[in-house]
Specification:
By secondary structure, the protein is an alpha/beta fold. Helices cover 38% and strands 13% of the residues. It folds into two domains: 233 residues, Aspartate Aminotransferase, domain 2, CATH 3.40.640.10; 119 residues, Aspartate Aminotransferase, domain 1 (Alpha-Beta Complex), CATH 3.90.1150. The strands form four sheets. It has a four-stranded mixed beta sheet with strand order 1-9-8-5, with helices on both faces. Strands 3-2-4 form a three-stranded parallel beta sheet, covered by helices on one side. It binds pyridoxal-5'-phosphate (PLP).
């Protein structure tokens, strides 16, 4: 038996019949760069996230970079973010010449709002909470700090399309929401893609222009820009996948619920769900003892797992110059040795889910 952690092959097998004619239609239109699928996608995401504007981009990383730039982040500035995210959260700050200022997380792997105020300086230009695993950060406390110090929030919503905090959609709480539509995300393109959400027309229109070489129209360049556009073809694929998103989230939540009720215990720690949030389980992460042995055991049973992420950002070789050390963020560092991502995807058969549970229980005797 082989149980993959993600199953993009099955996705294509199931969608091929409907997608091939759609791809043919889009390519036949010869709208490759820019086009009607993009406009449709932007409208649909704005409706889904309940925001005024969406800008389709070519990655979540570019959404973060453009978003931070539009919040005024410049060389020498500081942006507060957790150290346990995917590397792109910090890289987007660094590429603007700014400095990521890390804040440790809580037992649920999300930024600890109680530790934010102590690192605010007069150079802090933005706070970037990361809704890791599709679980929403404690946004009430974070927004309070944002208002108190007049520092804007840019949500790293890369993993949390469809997630909610007190019924408000991910990406609609801060000034800007930044999403990834990488193939591994719940709403996925078949290549790199991303998008930015906002209620601010100036941010939306400037992001659109900057993502397209800074061209206001074919011949006028107001600001030197980038090439960060989403392809029309990827937008078409995303429009199709949007019709499946509710189902994807429903199945992932059901799978997660089974894991939670079967596995929670002294050997497997699963953070308590926050009843203010609606989680979408981009990943299902448990914290376990003897993780590396468990991974090997599960591998021997045909079960693929993953770790998000084994080395915190502040301990990456690239981050050495920032001056953080082992011990700088004890919770993140301790979790990095215990976290394990189990398959939770929508293609996982229920009998496989129970087989994974049985194997984990067997491992811990
Ligand atoms: C939390 C987080 N932030 C940012 C990104 C960057 O998104 P992308 O890969 O689309 O550039 C990702 C993608 O994996 C992510 O998980």
């Amino acid at each position: 038996m082989k149980i993959p952690y993600v199953d993009l092959k099955t996705q294509w097998k199931q969608e091929k019949k409907e997608l091939l004619p759609l791809i043919d239609r889009i390519l036949s239109s010869a709208e490759h760069v820019g086009g009607s699928e993009i406009r449709k996608f932007e409208k649909k995401i704005s409706k889904l996230c309940n925001v005024k504007y969406t800008v389709a981009l070519n990655s979540g990383t570019d959404a973060l970079t453009l978003g931070l730039h539009l919040l005024g982040v410049r060389p020498g500035d500081e942006v507060i973010t957790p150290p346990n995210s995917f590397i792109a959260s910090a890289a987007s700050i660094i590429h603007l010449g700014a400095k990521p200022v890390f804040v440790d997380v809580k037992e649920d792997q999300l930024i600890d709002p109680q530790k934010i105020e102590q690192v605010i300086t007069n150079r802090t230009k933005a706070i970037m909470p990361v809704h890791l695993t599709g679980k929403m950060c404690e946004m009430d406390s974070i927004m309070k700090i944002s208002k108190k110090y007049n520092i804007p929030i840019i949500e790293d919503s890369a993993q949390s399309i469809g997630s909610k905090y007190k019924k408000i959609m991910s990406g609609a709480i801060g000034k800007i929401g930044c999403f990834s539509a990488h193939p591994l995300k719940n709403l996925n393109a078949f290549g790199d893609s991303g998008y930015l959400t906002t209620n601010d027309i100036k941010i939306a229109s400037t992001a659109k222009i900057l993502s397209n070489h800074g061209m206001a129209d074919r011949n006028i360049v107001k600001k030197f820009g980038y090439v960060s556009r989403m392809d029309n073809l990827q937008a078409g694929i995303l429009n199709y996948h949007l019709t499946k998103l509710n189902h994807i989230i429903k199945v992932r939540r059901k799978n997660a619920k089974i894991y939670i009720s079967e596995l929670s215990g002294k050997d497997v720690f699963i953070p308590k769900a926050d009843n203010r949030t609606f989680d979408t389980f981009h990943t299902f992460v448990v914290q376990v003892q003897n993780r590396n042995k468990l991974i090997k055991f599960l591998e021997s049973k045909g079960i693929q797992t993953s770790i998000h992420y084994p080395r915190p950002i502040h301990l990456q070789p690239a981050a050495k110059y920032l001056g953080y050390r082992k011990g700088s963020f004890p919770v993140t560092e301790s979790q990095s040795k215990k976290i394990l991502t189990l398959p939770v995807n929508q293609y996982l058969k229920e009998k496989h889910l129970y087989y994974i549970i049985k194997c984990i229980k067997k491992f811990y005797g």
